[in-house]
Amino acid sequence: MPADPSKSDAPIVLRGSLLIADPSLRDDTFNRSVILLTAHGPDEGAAGLILNQPTGRVVGDFLKGSEFTTLRHLAVHSGGPVMREQMTFSSFWWSKKLGLRWATRISADQAAQQARKPGRIVRAFIGYSGWSPGQLENELQRQSWFPVDPRPDILGHEHDRGLWSALLRGMSPFHRIIADAPEDPFLN
Q: Where in the sequence is the domain holding 47, given as residue range(s)?
């Protein structure tokens, strides 16, 4: 697990980490979300993709050109609130040496090639998640996110709303209670 960013003055770099939304983060976009941080640094801010928000639509619903024929049945996910007018393709795989790896903003041709490789998962995303310099660090200090290192089984999980609970359950007994609590405990 990454060092607790709220306990240190040293700059943290969380590129490659997963951000698991705290249940108190209840806005429509990030409620129970799991984000892969694809970029993060003290001077550049942060960017990532929400992994567990499928839209229920496929690439063929949006893109009709012949270059998208092999990807027409690929599920489209909401990557975040930034640039929601753009669809991008990304590929994910696990490296025994380096952990979770990814290629983002790849072309349709590259996505089709990646999809044919064993152990690769290809996703289409509408938008992405982004933070200006210092913004994510402030959210981490307010404990809006649980930063965790991805485990090898991340690619074996369904990347739907259940991913949030599954990852929390594996963190600790306390997090298991959070994962199993109703979304709105006042309706219980």
A: 5-176
- pTM exceeds 0.85 for this model: yes
Percent of the chain with pLDDT over 90: 69
Within-domain flag for 140: yes
Number of domains in the chain: 1
Report yes or no on 186 lying in a domain. Answer: no
Question: Contact 33/80 with Cβ under 8 angstroms?
Answer: no
Please return the burial class of 130, using the count of CB atoms within 10 Å of its CB with bins 0-12, 13-18 and 19+: middle
pLDDT tens digit sequence for 168-180: 998 888 888 888 8
Residue 9 in this model has a pLDDT that exceeds 80: no
Helix (H, G, I), strand (E, B) or coil at 82: strand
Q: Is the Cβ–Cβ distance between 130 and 82 less than 8 Å?
A: yes
**Three-state secondary structure call for residue 21:** strand
